[in-house]
Structures are given as structure tokens and as C-alpha cells.
Write the C-alpha cells for this entry.
Amino acid sequence: MNSRFVPGAAITPSPLRETPTAAVVTASYAPDFERCRLLCETVDRHVSCVAHHYILVEHRDVALFRQLETNRRTVVDERELLPHWLRAFDDPLSLFRRRIWLSLKTQPLRGWHVQQLRRIAIAAHAREDVLIFCDSDVAFLKPFDCGAFWHDGKVRLFRRDGVLADEGYEEHRIWSRNAGAALGIDPSRTSTHDYISTLIAWRRDTVLAMCGQIEKVHARCWVEVVGSARKFSECMIYGRYVDDLLSGAGHFHGSEEFCRVHWTGEALSDDEFRRFIAAMAPEQVAIGMQSFIGTDIGRIRRLIGLD
């Protein structure tokens, strides 16, 4: 594991250079390969001001995803990012249909847990100033300049204020509490903000300092700490680090979502899909069709005009 995490107290980030470098980061897996291919095509067609695109996958998926590599797109094996003691196995409890990540230092973890760990760990591997996270079931439909994520030396932190006080956010409140525990924040200091979305940005130097903070508080590898609770959110950890320990330094807040996502429910009919796109807000440049809903990727390609 390439470790460049900064131990010690929360470090106030310096202003970004006038024109920072940026990378798109996508964590994926084999069942989402065709969706990830579509994302790559639409990133190449519509997204500007990006120096590189990292695709983070499990070791056994590397060869498959290498088909998507270019001089500006790299597939990164999770073995380059995560400790050697965290290993993936076929899960006999699912009749070997699912994967499980096991170690003596964490809870048993599923793929969605480990994807979050990869997104944090890429900060020690990448060189770009700003990391832009985009799920593999996203497709860009409009031109997008990633400069929207920074101005005046600061990076945009997605935050929806106060929503965790509302009904229906029970799991988000657990994620927020666990984020506070990982960061060593006094449990009495609760947060009602939600930081979870796709197509969001983090500062790479802040991620490194965040991991250093976790390791300082617990005297253990940050992966052990985060993975010791199966209910966690990387977005909550980053958001609470920035707001609770840095008082927002190096960031500005934005609540508009750049990607319109169909999170739950049934696959959309053609007419419903067209209405979904027509209802995109002016600032929205991409759509996300959650892969578990089962929308056929061929239909998506046809309806957005790529086939």
C-alpha cells in the first residue's frame, strides 16, 4: 500500500493553485463493466478540465477493465491501494454468487464497503489536486467543465444542510455518528448535514490529512478503523472532517446536485426515461441509473443517442 498519510492534528489546507489539476475517480466491478464503458465514452465526449480518469477495481476484474484504458485513463488494482491483509473471497453463504472481504482487523465487508475504501485510498496513489467521484452507472449528457468544483483556491463540498434531522434518514445518522467516531469527534457534537451524492469533489491533500487524523486518534491503520463498523460512508467521513475539524477551511459549500439519479423503484419505460431527462435541473449535466434497478444498458445507450 502506498502510504503518504499525514499524522497529527487536523491540517488547514493551503489554497489551491490557480489552475489545479483534477482527476475523475470511479470505483466499479465486473457486473457494471458495460455501464462503466458508457461512462468513459460520455466523459471523453462531454467533460473538460480533467487530467486523468482512475477506475478502481478488485484484482480479478483488472484484466476486464483494462479494455477501457487510454493515455488518460488508468485501471487501478485494489491491491495497490489497500492493505495486503484485506482479501476478497467468494462467499459460501451466497452460494458463491457474491464476494466478501475478510481480515482479522475489520468486520466482514461487502463490495460496496470496499469501493468506499478504494475511493479514500486513491488519494495516496494519485497526483492530481482535486478528485472528482463519479459512479460507474452515470452517463454525461451535456458538456461539463470540472472547473465548477473550484474557485478562489477552494474546492466545492457537496452538503445538504440540516436534512438528517428529518424522518427517513436513520441510516444516514448512523453513518454520521460512525464518521465522528472514526475522526475522534466528541459524540455530543452531532451533525445534521448530508454529504452523500455522486459527481462530487474532494481535495486530495485533505483526504491524506483526514486519514492521518484517523490514524493519530486510534493508533491504527485508517482502513482498520473505518472497516471496524460495517455502516459507514466515505462521504460522511470526509464531510465531517472538513466541517467539524477544519471549520470548512479550503472548501465552499454547494447543495445543487450535478447528476440526476434514479435511485430506487422499477426500470423506467422509454417515455418515463425521456421525461426523467427532460426534468433535469439546469445545473445537472449527467444522469445515474442505479444498476441494481435493472435498466438495460442498451436501452440507455439508445435513448441518450449513442447507438
Remarks:
- The chain has a mean pLDDT of 93.
- The domain at 22-257 is CATH 3.90.550 (Spore Coat Polysaccharide Biosynthesis Protein SpsA; Chain A).
